[in-house]
Amino acid sequence: QLQLEESGGGLVQPGGSLRLSCAASGAPLDYYVIGWFRQAPGKEREVVSCINGADGGTRYADSVQGRFTVSKDNALNTVSLQMSGLKPEDTAVYYCNFRGPEGNFWGPGTQVTVSS
Questions:
Q1: For the stretch 43-59, what's the b/e string if a residue is b when 16 or more beta carbons lie within 10 angstroms of its beta carbon?
Q2: What's the chain look like in SS3?
Q3: Using CA atoms, how far apart are residues 53 and 48, in angstroms rounded to an integer?
Q4: CA distance 74 to 47
Q5: Which residue from 5, 84, 85, 86 could staple onto 17, CB 3.0 to 4.6 Å apart?
């Protein structure tokens, strides 16, 4: 059974940076497409970015293009989301998601708050 653990959330001022990580145990990254999602209060969960665990191909939502960078470390079985130029509208709970042959797996989420 795949298990996911997120870390790196917190409070940051507008314009600041944070790095989120999602550590996976139970299977290698190669089997999955890994996504970062976020959900703000009163809003639906939305995809922020995704990365192919096998070939490293990436995609980004228009709202974060140029500010966020997703990466993976297959040796550590970890996926990271480097967030820069943070805006108040980036405030949300961020979740990692692993989609693979046996289904979808979600991390517990980590809060990111962008506020002065």
A1: eeeeebbbbebeeeeee
A2: CCEEEEECCEEECCCCCEEEEEEEECCCHHHCEEEEEEECCCCCCEEEEEEECCCCCEEECCCCCCCEEEEEECCCCEEEEEECCCCHHHCEEEEEEEEECCEEEECCCEEEEECC
A3: 16
A4: 22
A5: 84
